[in-house]
From TrEMBL:
One of its GO terms (molecular function) is glycosyltransferase activity. Its EC number is 2.4.-.-. The keyword rRNA-binding does not apply. Gene3D superfamilies: Glycogen Phosphorylase B. This is Glycosyl transferase, group 1. It comes from sediment metagenome. The keyword Transferase applies. Keywords: Glycosyltransferase, Transferase.
Amino acid sequence: MRITICWPLISGYMAACWRALAAQSGVSLQVLAWRPEASRDHIDFDLSLVEGLDVRLLDGVERCDARLIRGEVEAYGPDVVVVPGWFWRPYREIVDWAYRRQIRVIMTMDTSLQLTMRQLLGRWIMAGYFGRIAGVYVPGERAFQLARVLGFRESQIRVGSYGFDYPLFAGCLEQRAASPMGWPRSFLYVGRYVVRKGIDTLVEAYERYRRQVANPWALITCGQGPLEERLQSIQGVTNRGFVQPQELPSVMSDAGAFVLPSRFEAWGVALAEAGAAGLPLIASRSVGATAEVLRDFYNGRRFDTGDASSLAAAMHWVHEQAPRAAELGDRSRCLAEPFRSELWAERLLTLTQELSQRGR
């Protein structure tokens, strides 16, 4: 089976998924994805992430060139095309091209159900486009419900559209628990330094938390972006800058808990990776992945989006759980395992086979 995946920016977790898919018997994989530009995208991934894969990286001009993209796909001749939602016009044109040639199209979609007017009207506004989609691949329950609202049948939808290199993180818990220094006393944030990620909420909450306890944990941040200056000169905060995916296990092994304070996060693979690393988790209620990998008071805490007081209370709670942090981390690891990249590939292949049997 020849599969083409049209994707936005490359990432470590999607590269792991693509490798798992390419390793499947009988699969030939082509990927078209955007080449990251640090000044525009606020990420700086090493391109060796996709080394050995058939990946065509599109620069800032090429990613907008529908004719070039269509030419790449047409020359490859796929049996199945995978596209990311409907936000990028050149990829939407690929859907039209594939539909005319009776090539099955699977759409990934990570937006959560919010029952906004835009979502409620989307079923009719996008009816022509959605009618060309054979199957939908969503990350979790929140996006599954939106897919149903948009008119897709249950038989068209599969859950689990994000995965990651689970074995890469699997040894972190034991390494951390065996440290002669004891469980690390630090919170970790990994992500872009932008408003959407709730950096301002994190800083305010951390300062409140420090005032509430006698021996506060440190806060380690890894990323880059326009709000980097907000992290400067804050007592207890260390900014490590952008970290490559292969460095994440070491970073997470040295942390005691993971925080994702996003104002909006369609899913949040970093939360699942931190879970696989055996960390107690803290995340806002706007993080889609909390529905799958975070159980309140079981392996971490949810907090009210944008509420620094609520986040400070969650950090305080995790601080107090230090004696049983390894137990919480083990629970996180179990909840994260279903999202390993090998299962991502199996789910996608199963969906393509089912669609083929139904003649779509």
